Amino acid sequence: MAGLIPESMQKVSHAVLGPREGDKLKDLAHDTKDINPKDRLTTDYGVKQSTADDWLKAASPDKAGPLLLEDPFARERIMRFDHERIPERVVHARGSAAFGNFKLLEPIPELTFAPVLTDTSRETPVAVRFSTVLGSRGSADTVRDVRGFAVKFYTNEGNWDIVGNDIPVFFIQDAIKFPDVIHAAKPEPHNEVPQAQTAHNNFWDFQFNHTEATHMFMWAMSDRAIPRSFRMMQGFGVNTFTLINSKGERHFVKFTFTPELGVHSLVWDEALKLAGQDPDFHRKDLWEAIANGVFPKWKFGIQVIPEADEHKFDFDILDATKIWPEDLVPTRYIGELELNRNPDEFFTQVEQLAFCTSHVVPGIGFSDDPLLQGRNFSYFDTQISRLGINFQELPINRPVCPVMNFNRDGQLRHTITRGTVNYWPNRYDACPPATHEEGAYVEYAQKVAGIKARIRSEKFKDHFSQAQLFWNSMSPVEKNHILNAFAFELDHCEDPVVWGRMVKRLADIDLQLAQMVAEKVGGEVPKEGRPNHGRKAPALSQTEFPGKATIAARRVAILIADGYDPVAYKAAYAALSSALAVPLVVAPSRAKITAADGSSSTQPHHHLEGFRSTMVDAIFIPGGAKSVETLSKNGRAMHWIREAFGHLKTIGATGEAVDLVNKAIDLPSVTVSSSGDVHESYGVVTMKELKPESLSETVQIAKEATGFMEKFFYGIAQHRCWDRELAGLNTQV
Ligand code: HDE
Description:
This protein has three domains: 299 residues, Catalase HpII,  Chain A, domain 1; 79 residues, Hemocyanin, N-terminal domain (Up-down Bundle); 172 residues, Class I glutamine amidotransferase (GATase) domain (Rossmann fold, 3-Layer(aba) Sandwich), CATH 3.40.50.880.
């Protein structure tokens, strides 16, 4: 070995290969520094600066003179600033990330020899980035769009990236079509309008011209495209991958993440308003939950098909516009993903976080899915354009296991590799390729035969069966939302050719849907449609994933004004906090508010103009005659109650506030209590105040209050009161 590292060098330094254990935090520590208030400001080359406020000038105290270009400190500051931006991602530009662990619960050695899926003693660090697809980096979070769900597992065998979405299928079958679908969906070329929207001519023109997109656009018009939270979305690998076991057998596999909190969405009117009222809604929600210790979790599942069964289905299992229905291929949940750490710095940990579908570890492989194969080329290529050829050396991207090879140089290379050779084979036998036993990635010996031609296999040509399956599987509320989504989207298309043709296309899915949309958008009402096979797949409806009944991390506004009832207020605040919800006190102004008996006062978090009902999951209004009277005369307060009601949110009120809610909603079908009992009607939970006159009455009231909280919390944990929509009571927004 003598000579590989010259003796003189061996004495003075040591080779740094990176940590061997899978601890990403330890690894990042090499490149992380804290701002120490005692540090002094320096240039990038380490020289302390005497001022950061004045450019060197030819001036005098009474006369501003010209700036001198010779000032290296000022030049450095401006030049660094001028070059701060890197290209945003060509798709999925807007997103945010968090970090955590993947824990395997059920090993699957019969399917793969990848330790990340066989070793239950491991905790694999992960980085997860959620994103929208179409909008630019500064666009809004709550737009109607597919959401990215990209997971980087820093395994001891190298990085494994599942670059998925919250929708299990895609618009196209062949990667060559990707530039077209994205050009058509992004802002139009002549005026760069609209931002972050599918509601425009070109998007729907493309959809009509590509029948293979039919299944996917049904998902995109469903509630999946307006999630309540990143924490309440499923994640799907979409493409078909493979698992290889130690006997050399191969299975096809699809990967899924299902949230512990269930799959929940905003309602459309709320999503639209939030895009203006709080464009960072999802980003903040994720941050807030993690900061409050309510760590989001997902179950990790696999759907598996043995290689021999590849052709046993009436769809092609390599077609990314198709799901594998659960009744044919059930999901088996084998692990858990938890996010428990927010980024320290957005740029270095989120903007520079780079995923590649081609990054898999031994025991996991690709398939001939023609979308996946194109993606395997694209992601690496796009990172070179955004981050440069050495993007994998960036702290957030580098693996936690040793990296050693003879790739060298390129812009911004910063690993210093000591040694006298940079090629293989070399006279030292240095860094030889590994054997399978040593953990090398060995390609699965797949027999490949075919005719070189630009063709698609026949089974890829059924474009409507699963679009119908999806529609048939929706609940009545979900169907209603899809209908309204089409009506909204096509209304935004000015070209009659576009919306006229799209209405006809809908008849390939469901005649009644097509007819209802046609009536709304003013198109020719189709009389005939493609026969619907009538089959259903329950797991396609998000109502199948209600999740854990919890109010943890749910935001609940408490509306009060001077003279509020301190007992009800304090009880609600304490109960919400101990259930890990986020109580937010909202009042007509942010000045301190005094309780009815003058015993206490509170500092509201927000005032009614600055904060809106869209930003919370539920509202609670305690009694107190004066407080309620003030709120009842405040138009914004009344709007808060009506809007929350229209958005199907749980509303709780006690004492005098019961009449306030009654007045704001003004719907005889929603009954509120007139006695001391706890009442629940269409998600409005009320309890009139009782004045205890004896001990037994006090005990009774305490019981009532507990009953009230139970009903109120139950409503919040249900996410929304869908019965209100089914009864047509939610039109007051
Ligand atoms: Fe992507 N996609 N994609 N995509 N994609 C990118 O890579 C591409 C597709 C997805 O948080 C880009 O780093 C092609 C399907 C996510 O950083 C780019 C095709 C699915 C993210 C790219 C697809 C996705 C991207 C842009 C068709 C769901 C964000 C920036 C063959 C399974 C990852 C980047 C992050 C990002 C190409 C289709 C998900 C250009 C060519 C299907 C979640 O490489």
